[in-house]
Amino acid sequence: MRIATIFLAVILLQIPGLIFSGDSVAAGLQTSSFEIEVVFSTDEIRIIRAHYDSQSGNSHRGKGKHKGLPPGIAKNLARGKPLPPGIAKRSLPYDLIRALPPVMDGHERIIVAGKILLIEIATHIIIDVLSDVLLD
């Protein structure tokens, strides 16, 4: 059993590990041959803007207004930072979720304080922020 464990450890050490890109504006995963960036795509931004632009004359305007966050918490709503614990968050509207392409596994889009965030579910790290699209 001990030999099998040592053998497994040696094999695992041979596999290149995942490296997080620290100098990138957006969080990404790198391996020796490719890089996967997880950010809002231009298509996603276009769909989100179109959704909220179409609601600008709608009677829903002003509903769900958010209160301003304390400055210390507000500055922590940035890429690479963890989502502050206990912060009020809500899901995107259902029709917007249906219009958007599926989000990469392990990530979700949420609304916090009038901003649309892309977060990593397991760590609650903010991957990307759209701050100028909501009507709230």
Structure description:
The chain has a 4-stranded antiparallel beta sheet, with no helix packed on it. With 136 residues, it is α+β, with helices and mostly antiparallel strands. It has 2 domains: 1-37, no CATH class; 39-136, Roll (Nuclear Transport Factor 2, Chain: A), CATH 3.10.450.160. The protein has helices at 2-14, 42-54, 71-74, 94-99, and strands at 19-20, 28-30, 35-37, 90-91, 107-112, 115-120, 126-130. Residues 15-32 and 59-64 have low confidence and may be disordered. It contains 4 helices and 7 strands, in the order αβββααβαβββ. The protein starts with a helix and ends in a 6-residue tail after the last strand.
| N→C terminal distance | 60 Å
CATH architecture of the largest domain: Roll
The major sheet is characterized as: 4 strands, antiparallel
Uncertain runs are 15-32, 59-64
Specify the number of helices: 4
H/E element string? HEEEHHEHEEE
SSE layout and pairing:
Layout: H1 2-14, E1 19-20, E2 28-30, E3 35-37, H2 42-54, H3 71-74, E4 90-91, H4 94-99, E5 107-112, E6 115-120, E7 126-130
Concise structural overview:
It contains 4 helices and 7 strands.
Observed structural traits:
4 helices; 20% strand; three-stranded antiparallel beta sheet; alpha+beta; 136 residues
